[in-house]
């Protein structure tokens, strides 16, 4: 090989390394960083003092549906918002609230409703799902106030 070919080959290798490095940075920043920024949605939500839970709460009403493992559940949730505006949105759009809850419940199994940890997990998933659709504030907490599993 002559000197000109060696220089061309070296430049090609350097460009390839730069492109690989850029791809690694892109993947790291765009795809991996959002998961690291928000480890849990519960930490991102504003806090409401337990004494104020009743002030901004909304009842879902009884919801009866089948679960992923072919069991049935009847549940009622109390949803706590962080503002009067968010509470008003939840009240006016109760059909949407119930639809989003059904979406979460359709992914659950009966065992989740039989333990305290399982029930808390369901409550947290419902809170995350509702928080993603509520306008004018946030959903800070969801409590299962009734559950019958069959």
UniProtKB/TrEMBL annotation:
Organism superkingdom: Bacteria
One of the Pfam families matching this protein, by short name: FliL
Main subcellular location of this protein, as a coarse class: membrane
Topological type in the membrane: Single-pass membrane protein
Biological process, per Gene Ontology: bacterial-type flagellum-dependent cell motility; chemotaxis
Localisation: Cell membrane
Keyword Endoplasmic reticulum tagged: no
Keywords: Cell membrane, Cell projection, Chemotaxis, Cilium, Flagellar rotation, Flagellum, Membrane, Transmembrane, Transmembrane helix
GO cellular component annotations of the record: bacterial-type flagellum basal body; plasma membrane
Role of this protein: Controls the rotational direction of flagella during chemotaxis.
Family assignment from sequence similarity: Belongs to the FliL family.
Descriptive protein name: Flagellar protein FliL
Organism from which the protein derives: Brockia lithotrophica
